[in-house]
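Run log // design_07
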């Protein structure tokens, strides 16, 4: 997939509405074609730029692998898999890939549609939380997008506020877009039983991700449940600077009731969060369709039968599927239960 060669140039379009970092970009032009207008973000492996395409005179986003990362074969391949994942998904609430370029002797880069607005992560950093009804409506739209992702045979594995974009005027978004498929797992990708690489963001990881066991649609359900908790309470269920403690909480501690932090919730909402964030995948919503139906019921747009499926279940234990996972859980469990138990929520 590649763009046609440059043919023309004209007056640069306005930067109004784009969220750019104050950092000065290190480059002026990428690939001899994309004039850098600002830095959108810096990830663990790639830099993301807002650019002006000299061919169309329109803005596009360029996500380029860092040169030192491109030398790592595994990370290089994962970057290309992100492009493949985006190519497979065709949904209005998922960011569109326009091209992938792999210049000889240079790091590869993706050309993506530009988005005006801000990430959910930036919104939460500024505002703290979101009105519960708006939070449910926004997350409902995300479940529809992720349902399309799953239909394409992809598990996102890194759903978090920074990867959900609120499109439109800041503070008054019109719709959402799901971003960043750098950690996605394609159905064509075999599970590596020997891998010890934990992929994702620990604060939103389901136990099966923590133990590097097979993931499925319910893994993304867990992440969205944590995001919903964060949106309506202003806090993460587990928030500690010690990564090891955070991992242990994700494995063994139930997500606390949202009503510990918020006095009033929409009827049924706490039970929905509870169901989405069960440690045992069998106790979660089976897929995004059933999760979305429960959110509709909270909004009064569907029968409450969808909420009855969220009845509290005391069996909230993840049972590892592999010998490696069982051993890791045992080691982490011993350390966890020896440690002083402090309140894991803020």
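design_07 sequence
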């Amino acid at each position: 997939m590649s763009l046609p060669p440059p043919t023309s140039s004209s007056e640069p379009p306005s930067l109004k509405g784009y969220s750019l970092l104050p950092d000065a970009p290190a480059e002026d032009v990428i690939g001899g074609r994309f004039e850098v207008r600002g830095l959108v973000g810096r990830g663990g492996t790639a830099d993301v730029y807002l650019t002006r395409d000299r061919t169309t005179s329109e803005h596009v986003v360029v996500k380029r692998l860092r040169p030192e990362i491109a030398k790592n074969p595994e990370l290089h391949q994962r970057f290309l898999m992100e492009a493949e994942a985006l190519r497979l998904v065709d949904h209005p609430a998922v960011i569109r890939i326009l091209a992938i370029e792999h210049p000889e002797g240079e790091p590869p880069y993706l050309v993506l549609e530009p988005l005006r607005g801000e990430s959910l992560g930036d919104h939460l950093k500024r505002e703290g939380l979101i009105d519960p009804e708006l939070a449910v409506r926004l997350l409902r739209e995300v479940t529809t997008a992720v349902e399309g992702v799953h239909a394409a045979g992809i598990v996102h594995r890194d759903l978090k506020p920074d990867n959900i974009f609120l499109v439109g005027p800041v503070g008054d978004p019109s719709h959402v877009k799901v971003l960043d498929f750098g950690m996605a797992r394609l159905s064509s990708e075999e599970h590596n039983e020997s891998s010890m690489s934990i992929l994702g963001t620990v604060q939103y990881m389901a136990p099966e991700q923590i133990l590097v066991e097979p993931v499925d649609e319910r893994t993304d359900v867990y992440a969205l449940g944590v995001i919903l908790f964060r949106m309506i309470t202003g806090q993460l269920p587990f928030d500690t600077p010690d990564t090891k403690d955070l991992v242990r909480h994700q494995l063994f501690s139930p997500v606390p009731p949202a009503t510990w932090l918020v006095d009033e919730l929409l009827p049924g909402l706490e039970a929905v969060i509870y169901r989405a964030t069960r440690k045992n995948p069998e106790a979660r919503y089976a897929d995004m369709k059933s999760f979305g139906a429960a959110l509709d019921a909270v909004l009064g747009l569907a029968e409450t039968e969808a909420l009855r499926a969220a009845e509290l279940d005391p069996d909230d234990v993840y049972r590892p599927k592999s010998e490696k996972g069982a051993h890791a859980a045992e080691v982490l469990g011993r350390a966890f239960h020896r440690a002083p138990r402090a309140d894991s929520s803020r």
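The CA atoms of residues 8 and 299 lie 50 Å apart.
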